[in-house]
Design a protein that fits this description.
Blueprint lengths: L1 H12 L4 H7 L6 H8 L4 H11 L3 H6 L12 H17 L2 H22 L5 H8 L1 H5 L8 H9 L10 H10 L5 H4 L5 H13 L3 H9 L1 H9 L4 H16 L1
Helix pairs in contact: 6-7, 7-8, 8-14, 11-13, 11-14
């Protein structure tokens, strides 16, 4: 996936080599090669470049559409950042603003599942409680995508409790920087596992993993089509590898 994104990026920028691309992005010569080694790519960097150069993110990231198509007027994006800036100004710090927004996102997601009479909403709420707290430390990860990727690695065993199965699934999941924002360190993954082990109820964990397909479908129902397509493609590639 990373190799394909780099090649499409070279095409839209009219650049012939990765060395030239690194120069265009003001990066060290070996940085592009390190993206391929880590199998991760800095989405925010590409997004900012797309705003500047007006190229299509659909083509570069998903391989869809016309490579010559330009990014539309970014006025709406500018307004979005102005709103975030207002939150930062109100709270006095970027971390406090992010923590508040992460908490509100959790509340809205749980409410949406609850409105659909979905019995997984309490279990999801307990899991998501970790993420607003983690925002204090600058981890602005996407908690629903975290759960979505982990559920694809659930392998139930009669010898393991639901918590043990869930924790093992987390250990078997690759958390790329492109997908989740800041990369999950071993310490961070251990903290999430501790949250599941000591904070969550065994029955709540069992609800999430007893039928992963149902939970995955519930999460997919909340995703816009383009987002769903991109992550299904990414998951299928990870499974093949």
């Amino acid at each position: 996936m990373v190799e394909a994104v780099i090649q499409r990026l070279l095409r839209v920028l009219g650049i012939g080599s990765e060395t030239q691309l690194a120069k265009e992005l003001d990066l060290k010569r070996g940085t592009i090669a390190s993206w391929k080694t880590r199998k991760s790519i800095p989405f925010q960097l590409i997004y900012q470049l797309a705003l500047e150069k007006k190229f299509s993110l659909d083509y570069v990231l998903l391989g869809e559409g016309d490579p010559n198509m330009q990014l539309q007027d970014n006025h709406v994006q500018d307004e979005k950042y102005q709103i975030v800036d207002d939150f930062i100004m109100f709270f006095g710090s970027h971390n406090q603003a992010q923590e508040y927004l992460a908490l509100k996102l959790t509340e809205l997601v749980v409410q949406k599942f609850q409105n659909q009479n979905n019995n997984i909403h309490t279990a999801i709420q307990q899991l998501l409680e970790f993420f607003p707290k983690s925002a204090k430390d600058g981890l602005f990860a996407r908690p629903l995508l975290f759960l979505y990727y982990v559920l694809h690695n659930v392998q139930k065993s009669a010898k393991q409790s639901p918590k043990e199965v869930f924790i093992q699934a987390i250990e078997n999941t690759h958390f790329s920087r492109w997908t989740f924002g800041p990369e999950f360190s071993k310490k961070r993954v251990k903290e999430i596992q501790d949250h599941i082990n000591f904070i969550m109820d065994e029955k709540e964990v069992e609800i999430l993993i007893s039928n992963p397909t149902i939970t995955i479908q519930a999460l997919e129902s909340q995703m816009p089509p383009a987002m769903l397509h991109a992550h299904k493609k990414n998951i299928n590639k990870n499974i093949k590898n």
